[in-house]
Amino acid sequence: MLVEAALKIRGDYCSKCSVCSSACPFEAILADEKTGELVIDIEECRLCGLCFSACPASAIDVAYYNRDLLIGYVKKCMQDSGLDKLVLRCQSTLLEGEVRDKLEKHGINKFISLRVPCVGRIPPEFVLRMLVLGIRKIAIVLCKGENCRFEKGSNIGLLRFSLMKSLLKQLGVEEDALIIIRSLVRAHVDSNRCIGCGNCVYTCAYDAIQLGSPGVAQINEQVCWGCGACVAVCPALAISLDEFNHNSTPQTISHFAKLVREAKQKNGKPTLLVFYCQWANFPALSSSHNYLEGNTAFLEMPCSSALDPVYVLQAFYEGFDGVLVVACKKGECRFEEGNELAERRVATLKKLLAQLNLDDRLEICFTSPKYLGELENHIRIFTNKLESSM
């Protein structure tokens, strides 16, 4: 099946200035040697959106989170909620603990939340549009530069919004109308639960975990990237990840199981639970990152390697007909080889499920948001397979 690219250069608008090529961290935009036309190598592209926000001629179209979608979303939220404060954050940051304290210090406790894969993809003029709309305060929450999932996206965003902050000051805008915070999702260990098995130490791709005295896992937060692979292998449930924890996920599975059962009673179609890596699927702004589409429920993971087999077993126990794990394409994992680790775990779990004749009801696929409709095609094929076996 042919799929459409989510990022395109409009040749009739492009001035061939090469700003987009300079901004791309992945050398995915090149000039044609004969014509000088700029061309996107979609295979190398990671859909960070830095080229989109850097283009001075608005010659780049992106399917996700473009200007019109972002502005329309904020407008609707303002109308529905009456709120006039906005928090714009990178996908790999969090809004708890120290970040929440900093927001409250600036009088931001109730706000519109806007979460995008990388804040570096947001053009600086977006801030001006928000102020014109009536947003009184904007908080930009960036991941730390060395941990940026798109190499230099965070630092580019920091530079752009720092310059915008200086401009607003010259225009007489209040200094805290725009604040910048840096953060990152991290893993944490409950020392009272840790049994010192060492699974997390062996699994961590960043050497961020060590067994300290007396045999308790210790995480170096300066090195941790927050992939969640350690969470999935901890038999004592001693490790948690900000915004992805052992308490909320089982409850979410149960909640969605009830809803899809009701949908199945109406249409007779198989029910499917999709665990997706947050970098392999970009939901609509109007959707929660855990959401429902007909008979299919979607649950977000920080990385496909964070999938706990217990959640798969719970899904089958709760009545889901199938479980699909959605990982990034090979060679494009934001966490070293997290997708390959997930593939090995799914293969192992399928062997266990074979004893219950459920192995054909668990699959893993490798997708990217840069190919429009690719994930939907995988879901359609798997659903048809489930339907034929019912």
Structure description:
The protein has a 5-stranded mixed β-sheet, with helices on both faces. A 4-stranded parallel β-sheet has the order 7-6-8-9, sandwiched between helices. Strands 1-19 form a two-stranded antiparallel ribbon. The protein is built from 12 helices and 19 strands. 34% of the residues lie in helices and 21% in strands. Strand 17, helix 11 (338-353) and strand 18 form a beta-alpha-beta unit. The chain has helices at 19-23, 50-54, 67-81, 98-105, 125-133, 153-170, 199-203, 229-233, 248-267, 309-317, 338-353, 374-389; strands spanning 4-5, 7-9, 29-31, 38-40, 60-62, 85-90, 112-116, 137-143, 178-183, 187-189, 209-212, 216-219, 239-241, 272-277, 291-293, 296-301, 322-328, 362-367, 371-372. It folds into 4 domains: 4-61, Alpha-Beta Plaits, CATH 3.30.70.20; 67-183, 3-Layer(aba) Sandwich (Rossmann fold); 187-241, Alpha-Beta Plaits (2-Layer Sandwich), CATH 3.30.70; 248-389, no CATH class. It has 390 residues and is α/β, with parallel strands linked by helices. The protein starts with a strand and ends with a helix.
Short recap of the structure:
Helix content is 34%, strand content 21%. It is α/β, with parallel strands linked by helices.
